[in-house]
Design a protein that fits this description.
The chain has about 525 residues and is α+β, with helices and mostly antiparallel strands. About 35% of the residues lie in helices and about 25% in strands. The strands form four sheets. The protein has a seven-stranded antiparallel sheet with strand order 1-7-8-9-4-5-6, sandwiched between helices.
Length: about 525
């Protein structure tokens, strides 16, 4: 039977480096230390490398330059020590060597950590493009192909890149070939034996293409070399170099072509990184604009209502959030207020919060009772979504003339009145909006007396207060408010922010929102 692999096909496979550097030479100053120890004590030191360290440096070429792991041991008396002169006490020298070994181990660990950290820092450098960099990537690829040909004396070269399905190879750049080759359809990977072998990590050398037809050189040539183009983890395609005469290619020439292939892979990854970075920057700017849009829609201007003042605060855990606070004077003279929370991923939460706020504001224009507003909002959420949007909302109205306060809540929100060391809960936990279209939410009414505080907040604010050890329960919060004696609604909001440690922990784990109504 004839051999499958012909004698005129050569696979260039890199052999692992087996030589390992002298461990003493890899540790600066170690040789001088050993000589000084011998001349001072009369005892000769040797460095014994552990077997695991030696095997790792022998097998892993990336770790071959790292300092060897081992220890110093007293081997024998120093040959240069004067005859008849007493050496240093052996037990004390052993103790000194133990201390040196401890320092040596710390030095080795530090150097390894530095080696890894510097590489990690290198990967964190953003890929940026210069404003005056006008050379297109096509020109840079063509220059690399030309360099490969000039380096090995070839006539042409071409870059073939895999498609997304890894089923075809399309020529993406060439040098020394007609430009219309770029218009030709992609080559199927199936049956392209040389490309398949190269993608496995081997360099294929065809010394005589006329006798290697089954290896399918993509271009007519007398000789050719095919090497892989790949990143550290992903094969990208193949690089072909075509010669005008039958010839062999030395290992140095093949290595040069592989270096060019690595440069091309780096160029392709750079362009991909630039594109990803550009898209990420655009995405971040859009998210920032969305977050600014949300913040601008929050209520900030205090309404002109005698004997009452309002203040609120909302902080997003990310650029866009699902919490909000809002107040507005209605056409009938009532003051409408609400605090909402949508529990969802960032973008979904922001869109859901905008929808929830718009629905509540719209229905509040023609419905007087807060419970009916919530019921209508819940019905709208149910009918206008796919059933995956659930929201919590506390909605209240105040008649400034009668000081009558009406409030209703859905989901995990809180609303209570704080007076002299007393807390009165005004809403109870009910199913969130959008969970049941037939859910009816009742409201509760009471008159506000001068000096009382009406507070609405999301469940996350109460949880955050508990985390900070500020409020074990609502009565504890009432005691703190009474002792602080706030003078205005904004003053109480600032106190709550201080208790939440907003300034000390700028990145919250979840959205926070609150609203305070003060009475005089």
């Amino acid at each position: 039977m004839n051999p499958i692999q012909p004698s005129y096909l050569r696979l260039h496979i890199e052999e692992e480096e087996t030589e390992v550097a002298d461990p003493v030479s890899t540790l600066p100053g170690l040789s001088a230390l050993m000589d000084s120890f011998a001349s001072s004590t009369g005892w000769k030191l040797s460095f014994q490398e552990t077997s695991s360290s030696y095997d790792a440096r022998r097998v892993d070429s990336q770790a071959s330059h790292l300092p060897a792991r081992g220890k110093l041991v007293i081997e024998d008396m120093c040959e240069q020590w004067p005859a008849g002169k007493a050496t240093a006490h052996r037990q004390r020298c052993d103790s000194l060597v133990d201390s040196l070994n401890f320092m040596l181990e710390q030095l080795t660990v530090t150097r390894e950590a530095l080696w890894r950290r510097e590489a990690e820092l290198a990967t964190s450098v953003p890929v940026i493009t210069r404003g005056d960099d006008t050379q297109h990537v096509a020109k840079r690829l063509e220059t690399s192909l030309q360099a490969a040909c000039n380096g090995v004396g070839a006539q042409a070269a071409a870059l073939y890149v895999l498609d997304d399905a890894t089923s075809q190879l399309k020529m993406r750049a060439c040098w020394g070939l007609p430009q219309h080759r770029l218009l030709e359809p992609a080559r199927p990977l199936q049956g392209a034996l040389a490309d398949l072998e190269a993608l496995l990590g081997h360099a294929i050398v065809l010394e005589d293409c006329s006798t290697t037809g089954h290896w399918e050189s993509p271009e007519p040539a007398e000789s050719a070399v095919c090497v892989p183009v790949s990143s550290a983890t992903t094969p990208l395609g193949t690089l072909w170099v075509f010669g005008g005469e039958k010839r062999d290619y030395s290992s140095q020439e093949t290595n040069l072509i592989e270096i060019v292939a690595g440069r091309i892979a780096a160029e392709l990854e750079r362009e991909a990184a630039v594109a990803v970075g550009r898209n990420a920057s655009t995405h971040e700017r859009e998210l920032e604009n969305a977050g600014q849009w949300q913040q601008s829609r929050l209520s900030h201007i205090t309404p002109l209502v005698d004997d009452f003042d309002v203040a609120g605060f909302t902080k997003f855990a990310d650029t866009v959030g699902g919490d909000f606070h809002w107040w507005s004077m209605q056409n009938d003279g009532r003051l409408a207020m609400m605090v909402g929370d949508v529990q969802a991923p960032m973008v979904e939460a922001g869109l859901g919060a905008a929808t929830l706020g718009a629905l509540a504001q719209t229905h509040s224009e023609y419905i007087a009772f807060p419970g009916q507003v919530l019921s209508r909002v819940g019905e709208s959420l149910w009918t206008s979504s796919t059933g995956d949007l659930f929201a919590s909302l506390a909605y209240a109205t105040l008649d400034p003339e009668s000081r009558q306060l009406s409030v209703a809540g859905a989901g995990n929100v809180g609303a209570f009145v704080v007076s002299q060391r007393r807390v009165e809960q005004l809403i109870e936990e009910l199913p969130p909006l959008g969970a049941d279209p037939d859910m009816f939410y009742h409201h509760r009414s009471r008159q506000l007396s001068p000096g009382e505080w009406f507070i609405m907040l999301t469940e996350t604010v109460r949880a955050r207060l508990a985390e900070q050890g500020v409020a074990r329960d609502d009565h504890e919060l009432a005691r703190l408010i009474h002792n602080a004696s706030p003078t205005a609604a904004q003053h109480l909001v600032d106190l709550l922010k201080e208790w939440l440690r907003i300034d000390r922990t700028p990145m919250a784990r979840y959205d926070l929102s609150m609203l305070v109504l003060g009475t005089r």
